[in-house]
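Hi there,

I know you've been waiting on this one. I reran it after we fixed the sequence typo, so this is the corrected version. Both the input and the resulting structure follow.
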Amino acid sequence: MTTVTKREPIHCMLDCYAWIIERAGFDSRPLYSGAWEASYDVSERGIAYFGEEIDPKRWQERMRRLYGAAVVHWCDYGAKRSANFAKLLGLLDDRSDGAFVLTVDLYHFPHAPRFGSRHLPHIVVFEAPAGGEWRIIDPYFSWSGGVSRETLREGFLSGVWLDSAAMHEAAPETAAELFREDIRPGINPLLGDVERFVREAVERSGGHAPPTLFESLQQTGVIAKRFGGYARVFRYLAGRDEEACAALAADVAALIQGWESFLLTIARIGLLKRAADLPALSEKLARLHEREASIREELLGALASWSSAAGQAVGHGGSSG
């Protein structure tokens, strides 16, 4: 029986990669470096966790740098979906040491919260052992179970193969390179994008929140879950310091909860049809920035200590041999 350990969701694609990495016996935590600033879509309709212009190649390249050339592309992105599904079926007998990572439409999958009600892209692991049951493993929702050919055909969008035999443990030196790229002071772009969208929407509506404002921003709650990457990376850096790891994890949980609280405030303003207090909303976002900035400082300190212990001299701006 394939099992999925229940833990906080972060990013559906990274969670799938991490599940396969861990099953192969390797440490997945370095993969989450930079998850807190993973791409999202901003348009006049709102802010969404997924968009047509978002390209997974950045994360696939990071996967290669950390764990080897494990991502195998087999989809023809210029072909029809039905042709790629037929190609998937043709590959099942030739794949044993690894798993498919598929992009699917959650509308068709009964385990999904929006099953049958909304078309949303999502990423899952798919396995089809010889002579065995077809299975979906969804680390993001901590779920695994059987899937019929018809359900998979209806929900399939695209996919890659992750070859476990091509994987190796992430070298600390490579992980350090990514950490130095990603762990830095600064304002998360999500803060500025949300504040700008709210201000412009309210100003266009004469000082009130338009009825669609909450719906336009609702997916920022999904994007905020990516801040969980801070806790994964910190635990990698802090090692056996359980007290520090627990404290940082609590700060990250409070940051994510703060974003959920902000969204509830937006929803309440819309329901009550009150004038939107833009300075108060900006203050809420400023407090979220302060909390995230504190978390980043903790990671910078942990990175410096970890690098020093590994025989490296690392400053906030880079490294020296």
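Quick highlight: The chain is about 45% helix and 15% strand.

Best,
R. S.
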